[in-house]
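Async update (no meeting this week)

Hi team, since we skipped the sync, here's where things stand on the single-chain job. The sequence we agreed to prioritize is pasted below, unchanged from the tracker. I ran it this morning and attached the output directly underneath so nobody has to dig for it. Comments welcome in thread, and please keep replies under the output.
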Amino acid sequence: MGSEEPSTWDAVFDDEVVKVTSRREIKQRVRENLVGLAFSGGGIRSATFGLGVLEGLKPFGLLKKIDYLSTVSGGGYIGAWLSANCKRAAERKAAPEKAPADPADKAAYERASVDWLDKSANWRDSIAHLRRYSNYLSPQVGFFSADTWSMAAIWIRNTLLVQLTVILAIAVALLLPRPLSAIFQEWPHVGDWRWITVVLFVLAVAGIAGNQLRLNRDVDVPFLHSTSWAAGLAATMICAGAAVGLGVRFDFHPFTDGPIDWKVAAPIALLLVLIGFCLLPAAVKLMSKIWPGDDPPKQINYTQGWVQGGVVVPMMATCYLVAAILWGQTVGMYSSGELAKLDSFGGFFTNAWRYWPLPLSVTFASLWLLSFCSIRSGRDTKGLLAAFFAPVPAVAVLHALLCAIMLLLHGWAKQPDEGEWLAFVWAPAMVLFAFSLSIVMLIGIMGRQSTEGVREWWSRLGAWLGIYGFAWMLIAVAAVYGPQWAATLLDSDTWKGSVIGGWLATTLAGLLAGKSNSTGGGPKSAKSEKTTAGKLLNLVATVGPFVFIAGLLIGISTCLHLIILSISDQNWSGIGDLHWKHWEYMNDSHVMMVLAVMGATFVCLLLLAARVDINEFSLNAFYRSRLSRCYLGATRFLSGERSPQKFTGFDEKDDLRMANLGGKDNQPPAGPLHIVNCALNLGGSSDLALHTRHSASFTLTPYAAGSSYPSKDPSGARKPEPLGYQPTAAYGSADGQPTLAQAISVSGAAASPNMGYHTSPVVAFLLTVFNVRLGWWFPNPKESGIKSPSPWFSLRYLVKELFGGADDKSNYLMISDGGHFENLAAYELIRRRCRVIIISDAECDPELKFEGLGSLIRMCEVDLGARITLDVGPIRPDPESDRSSLRCAVGQIDYGDGIPDDGVLIYLKATMTGHEDSAVLQYKASHPDFPHESTGDQFYGENQFESYRRLGREVAGSTFGSVNCNQDFVTVAGDLLKNFPPPSAARRLRTSSRGA
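Output:
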């Protein structure tokens, strides 16, 4: 990408108007009289119906009067065909010297040089190519067809590479608990290194305190500013000197694990907590020096990421290390071993505090600090009293819960083989739970003297602690218990087949159900939700991914266990051995051997993540090349223009760069300015405005690529800034810029782990692992320094796909099917305030619920302030005949904001009136779902292709044949509007319409 800063949408639109004006015959008031044609999503069904619409408009001379061509998903197929034909016809006209010498070929060349939008242009040969390749994914279908086997081979190859990367990443995570278990056993013996536990806890508490203090003050707290770093360091030195002096004076050694004098531990603990708090301004100052952006932080204000890194992770590490110390005290690892002799809760509760004065004092001092930081005002007397006493019951609860944990650990210590693994897996989570309950008690005692903002802050922190705690449990349980469970399940040959077969069947069913229109993987209908089959599909789509994830974790853990056993000195025989001697094998695993396996796995993971391109090894390349062969190959229909590779049948020259659709050297573009609509996936964004959509509009045109989505600063310190746009010719570097086929393949990437408002994290995991990935990671247009079209290291982005966590903050953005945002391709035309908009709607809508139209109306009013008034009543089928009265509707667009002239919306719908020609009626009789056959059917035969094409041609022809089209398009639209009076309130399709 070039070095220039991203352009704003206003600048992009101004440039577009200049380009549009250059090809207009009438150049006055162009901005106020823009005309746009939109083709909806719907795969090849929409493309073929759209082809008919184009043919229906052509005889009236209307195509040359269209300024914008906006396409989404399947509509992009035929839009690319039109744009490329316009471009190539213009190139032929500009180069008559390239005409063949043969008279017949020369005549054909001249005919193909006519303006593609002209009435006299001959489209027959180009359409013949489309018809031949209507089965565009696999032109020759059959068991012994090379096309079919190529599809399977490409998917298997790419899936294996992606799966290997995912499996290696999971393997590293599952190997991690083994060396951590060794640290768990050794940590009680490390002496003064155990101060690390205190330091981690104090740093986490200091971060919480600083954020809560700032949250509760209407004005800035000077001490929390980076400018106070010198005062903070001075206070830190004073507190540190006092703490060291006390420790030396009283010979304080807190890690001997004998009884400790609390009168020394308490003041030292208080000084340690104050040290952490006093370091905050210095920490902010340090961060401002190394901050990568132009707006470094000036005071503490943690975002979601900083809370995780500065609070959650240190707190999790503290719980893990505290659990290790408790286990060591329970089993009597020390010379005194007094706590190991206790065997009742009462004994622990009355005696254990003598061994824990430092940790309990640190906790008490921390809760004290947090209480004072959470009160509404320093002048609130009741608040000060509550803050003073609130830590007492909170620490009492913590002490009681730690004693209960000790009692449980005491029981586990009697199991010599399994006990230490039980403590390792479960004790850290129990310590985290104990601390969380003490915080609950603190919040309860503070009551009204605290603020709702502080309570909300604690709730969000509790959520992240729960997420991290669950992740720890998931990984630890799978790593430790997985091999034993697998051995139990697979001990019998009959049972083995049932388990593996059931797992595979459930996984496959979940994968297919996750893509079904009856589940979260596609648009839902009331009918599909109410039927037994629909409910079953939803159940399978919900359960299947969890079954697969559980089986995958157990399977990888078992394989790792077998690898470690095979390269070690341990002898094992058979699956039964893995069950009965599991704990013996786990205890005898050599740490260095585990680290060697982990290191080798990690190196392989780095290699694959760096070399396997996350974009090129998705299914997009397969999809793109076949779209190019069909729809762009059809634009090179003259003899000798195409030279497909003799073995594969593909010609790379079919495709052309998106930027080449624009006119060169300030020449006007050959056809309407093509807007390819995609979805910017934001399932991982914290923007609450996206809680339903999970996406925003992202467009590719010959001139600019990007989005006007306002990227929000997580800290809230800055105003939202649009992502912006980059010149298409330099987007992703000059060599990696988008091509037309790439643009329409991404716009039509319906099957993707991140699917806008259809995104489901569990389904995303399944789709990623099985490489059902048609989306593309484009460079973030806001980051102008990115010079590669794809991420050089794919692991981070693969993880985002696995969990449906794409957002707008990373260097690359997940872009997928524009239908995941808006499926009629009219949103961007309404953003441009087009005076006339024609929508060709051939999305799958068998019940004529107009879901895409309703969504468009709602979003345009919310986002753009434009209100659409449209009566679709005559399009709805009659209950008795199941036929529509009309196949089109004409309505108005009220743009508001002082614009005097309303826009006109001409809506063409793929539906039947019963007056179609005989060929279409015959196909309908044989195929009752026509014209709303499943979008999953992308393999069209000649009859199917011709039926949709004829229907589109009839719908457009009958609509525009009713008015005089030898006028400017605005007048034509006005005449059409007269034939469609404004709807009554009862039949008006607005945001609240049930039909939407």
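Quick observations from my side:
The chain is about 50% helix and 5% strand.
The chain has four domains: 9-33+74-137+620-820, 177-450, 484-587+594-602, 827-987.
Reply here if anything looks off.
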